[in-house]
Write the C-alpha cells for this entry.
Amino acid sequence: MALRNFTDSQGHVWRVWNVVPQYATGRDEEQMTPGLQGGWLCFENSGEKRRLSPIPADWENAESGALEQYLGQAAAVTQRAMAS
C-alpha cells in the first residue's frame, strides 16, 4: 500500500492511499460493495473521506493536479452507525 499527501487548490491537505481487499475464507467477494471488489483509492482529510474505484494506474506518481481531479471523481463515504 502506497501513501501520499497532497494539498488541493483550496489549501486542504489530503492523504490518499490504495486499498486492495484480501478475501479470506468465509468472506465472499460478492459481499463487497458493488464496484469495489478490485480495490479503491481512499482520500481522507480532517473532516471527509472519499473513495475512487477503479484505482487509476498512474496515481502513485501523479502530480497534485491529477490527484485533485481523482478526488473530484471520488464518492463521499458516509460513516456507519455503531451497533449498540
